[in-house]
Design goal:
Number of strands: 16
Strand content: 15-25%
Number of domains: 1
CATH class: Alpha Beta
Helix content: 25-40%
Distance between the termini: 30 Å
CATH topology: Creatine Amidinohydrolase
Oligomer: single chain
CATH architecture: Alpha-Beta Complex
Number of helices: 5
Strand order of the largest sheet: 8-7-9-14-15-16
Order of helices and strands: HHEEEEEHHEEEEEEEEEEHE
Largest sheet: 6 strands, mixed
C-alpha cells in the first residue's frame, strides 16, 4: 500500500530528514585516510542519539551498524568494520534516522584523497543521475519515469545500473511501497501523487551491472570488483514539483564545496534547511 502523507506527517518527515542530513554532515568531517569505517559509524550513531533520534538500520533484521558502508566495489549494505580508509578509496555512507516515528534516508559517496579519474567520473555521473531522477518525479507521472531518467543518463555515458537494488517509499517505516527502480520504461508503474514520500537512490557501476551477495547475506558487491557509486535523497511529491527533504549542504560545507547540487537544480525544489 502506498501512503500519502498528511501535512502533519510531512512536517515530521522534514524533521527526520534534517537529522539524517546533519548526521552525514558530521560524518563528512571525519572521512579521511586512516579512519576506520567503524569510527564513522560510531560518529553517526552518537550524533543521531544525541539529537533525540534512533538509528533506523541498527539492529534491523540483525544489521550491525548505523550506516551502510560501501567501500569501492561494495554496492550497498556493507558492514562497518576495522577497515582503515586509504588514499584513492571511495566510500558510500547510507544513513537512515528515525525521529518521532518517521524516517529520513540519504546516501553520499566520498572520495578519499585523490581518486582515480575514471572513478571520480563515475561518482559525478551517479550524483547527477540522482537529480535527473528527481526532476522526473512529478505529480501525475509514474515511477517508471524516474527509473528511465536515471537509467538513460548513466547508460548513455557508459555506466551500468544495478537491477536488484532500488529506492523505495518512506515514512513511518524505513521501507514502504512503492519500489523505485533505477531502470525501467517511461509511463509504467504507480502514479506519483502529492503527499508521497520516496527515496531515490541510483547505484551505478563502473563495470558490469552484475552483483554478488556475500555470505553474511547483507553485503552486496560488484561481481567484477570494479567501483560502484551511490547517492540518495528523500523527496516529497507536491503539486508544484518534487521537493528534496534531505540535503547534501551539510556534507559539502564540511568538505569545503561551495555550492550543493540541489541549490543549482531549478527543476527540483530544495527545502529551506
Amino acid at each position: 500500500m502506498i501512503y500519502v502523507k498528511t501535512a502533519e506527517e510531512i512536517e515530521k518527515m522534514r524533521a527526520a530528514c534534517e537529522l539524517t542530513s546533519r548526521t552525514l554532515g558530521e560524518v563528512a568531517k571525519w572521512v579521511r585516510p586512516g579512519v576506520t569505517t567503524r569510527h564513522l559509524d560510531n560518529i553517526a550513531r552518537e550524533f543521531i542519539q544525541d539529537n533525540g533520534g534512533r538509528p533506523s538500520c541498527l539492529g534491523y533484521e540483525g544489521f550491525p551498524g548505523t550506516l551502510c558502508i560501501e567501500v569501492n566495489e561494495t554496492v550497498v549494505h556493507g558492514f562497518p568494520s576495522g577497515y582503515e580508509l586509504r588514499e584513492g578509496d571511495i566510500v558510500g555512507t547510507d544513513c537512515v534516522a528515525e525521529l518521532n516515528g518517521y524516517h529520513g534516508d540519504s546516501c553520499y559517496t566520498f572520495g578519499i584523497g585523490t581518486v582515480d579519474p575514471k572513478t571520480e567520473a563515475l561518482m559525478r555521473v551517479t550524483k547527477e543521475s540522482l537529480y535527473k531522477g528527481i526532476e522526473a518525479a512529478r505529480a501525475g507521472k509514474r515511477i517508471g519515469d524516474i527509473s528511465n531518467a536515471v537509467q538513460t543518463y548513466c547508460e548513455h555515458r557508459g555506466y551500468s545500473v544495478v537491477r536488484e537494488m532500488c529506492g523505495h517509499g518512506i515514512g513511518r517505516s524505513m521501507h514502504e511501497d512503492p519500489e523505485v527502480p533505477n531502470c525501467g520504461r517511461r509511463g509504467i508503474g504507480p502514479v506519483l501523487r502529492p503527499g508521497m514520500c520516496i527515496a531515490i537512490e541510483p547505484m551505478i557501476n563502473l563495470g558490469s551491472k552484475n552483483i554478488v551477495i556475500e555470505r553474511n547475506g547483507w553485503e552486496c558487491r560488484t561481481r567484477d570488483r570494479k567501483p560502484s557509486a551511490h547517492y540518495e535523497h528523500t523527496i516529497l511529491i507536491t503539486a508544484e514539483g518534487p521537493e528534496i527533504l534531505t540535503t547534501f549542504r551539510y556534507i559539502e560545507e564540511a568538505l569545503g564545496i561551495a555550492e550543493a547540487q540541489e541549490e543549482t537544480t531549478p527543476e527540483a525544489t530544495p527545502t529551506n534547511n
